[in-house]
Write a structure and sequence with these properties.
two-stranded antiparallel ribbon; alpha/beta; binds NADP nicotinamide-adenine-dinucleotide phosphate; 11 strands; about 35% helix; globular; seven-stranded parallel beta sheet; about 325 residues; about 15% strand; TIM Barrel
Length: about 325
């Protein structure tokens, strides 16, 4: 039974779950994952759709194509129920160290979109992001190549990832920006600009009918309270070398966990749910994409869409001191 309340993806006039699913963690990518096989991930993806978690976020680079293949296999029989969002424009140089480079050349983008479509077993992808702007290629050239693929029916809508307002404006002049994806959470608030619906990219998206899609909305797990200063990450886990996850930063930032815990306790919710509800309260055009490898957490996260925070909750959370780690 669906538990995730819906939101409208305005550019396509489509309803999607208010909480989406960031699927990267199901492939060898960023974090260590449980040693389960693709059957388990297929079941998890289908459980997500059953719960009403219908925005599935992937990228060509996640597990060097594994993630898209997984989604293609898992949901091909219910393709119309899901909004598949993928990303192009990054190249993996070394999967073990996650060494990436940008490639926004039109011929490259065209080739990798075709490869994504094959892996996803679909004739068109609903949303395709330029994963990062390539400084060596004028944005209009990369964006123009993707816009051509919209005209050909291979892409439904275009999005940008990790961009500033001036870059979104620039792309929008050539072809509409339907979505922007950036890191956004209680401890990464830069997309708000100078306040709620201020001059940040979240406000720009609201003004331009674009979806705003926060990635790493649970602070890569930190905001759930499950990661303590004592937690040890294996070398292959990105967090082992992430400045927000040094033992010192984790100790200094415990106050954010305490604050989330206090709100969670008075609302009868979990920290993860409060963290997601705070994000959802920042605008009706926002759909966060938490990642998880566990069904119980998928359900927990989806239920955050039904948690309405009070003015006092929001004021307390808004007042959180920013994170110390860079
Ligand atoms: N555009 C970009 O450049 C970009 C960059 C990063 C990420 N992304 C996208 O954003 C998605 C999500 O980001 P993310 O995975 O980095 O970070 P996240 O969603 O903030 O956190 C994921 C971590 O939180 C844990 N977790 C999830 N739900 C939980 C819960 N209810 N209670 C306790 N722990 C919980 C997960 O562990 P378990 O698996 O053990 O539950 C995992 O370690 C990615 O999958 C990807 O699609 C995009």
């Amino acid at each position: 039974m669906p538990v995730s309340r819906s939101r409208v993806f305005r550019p396509a006039d489509r309803r999607i779950g208010a909480v989406g699913f960031g699927c990267a963690g199901l492939s060898p990518w960023m974090y260590t994952r449980p040693n389960l096989d693709d059957h388990a991930w297929t079941a998890l993806l289908n459980a997500a759709v059953d719960l009403g978690v219908t925005l599935l976020d992937t990228a060509g680079v996640y597990g060097e194509g594994h993630n898209e293949r997984l989604i293609g296999r898992a949901v091909t029989h219910r393709r119309r129920e899901v909004l598949i969002a993928t990303k192009v424009g990054l190249v993996v140089d070394d999967l073990a160290t996650l060494a990436l480079r940008r490639d926004g050349r039109p011929e490259h983008l065209r080739r990798v979109v075709e490869a994504s479509l094959r892996r996803l077993r679909t004739e068109h992808v609903d949303l395709c992001y330029l994963h990062r702007i390539d400084p060596a290629v004028p944005l209009e050239e990369s964006w123009g190549a993707l816009a051509e693929m919209v005209a050909e029916g291979k892409i439904g809508h275009l999005g940008l990832s990790d961009v500033q307002v001036h870059e979104a404006r620039r792309a929008h002049r050539t072809h509409p920006v339907a979505a922007v994806q950036s890191e956004f959470s209680l401890w990464s608030r830069q997309p708000l600009g100078n306040g709620r619906h201020g001059d940040g990219i979240i406000g720009w998206c609201a003004e331009n009918d674009a979806l705003f899609v926060p990635f790493s909305p649970l602070g890569r797990g930190f905001l759930t309270g499950d990661i303590t200063p004592e937690t040890r990450f294996p070398p292959g886990d990105l967090r082992a070398r992430h400045p927000r996850f040094t033992p010192t930063a984790r100790t200094d930032d415990r106050h954010i966990i305490a604050l989330l815990g206090a709100v969670a306790e008075r609302r009868g919710a979990t920290r993860a749910q409060v963290a997601l509800a705070w994000i959802l309260a920042q605008g009706g055009h926002i759909v966060p994409i938490p990642g998880t490898t566990r069904l119980d957490r998928l359900q927990e996260n989806a239920l955050a869409a039904g948690l309405e925070l009070t003015d006092r909750d929001l004021a307390d959370l808004d007042g959180a001191t920013p994170a110390t780690g860079g």
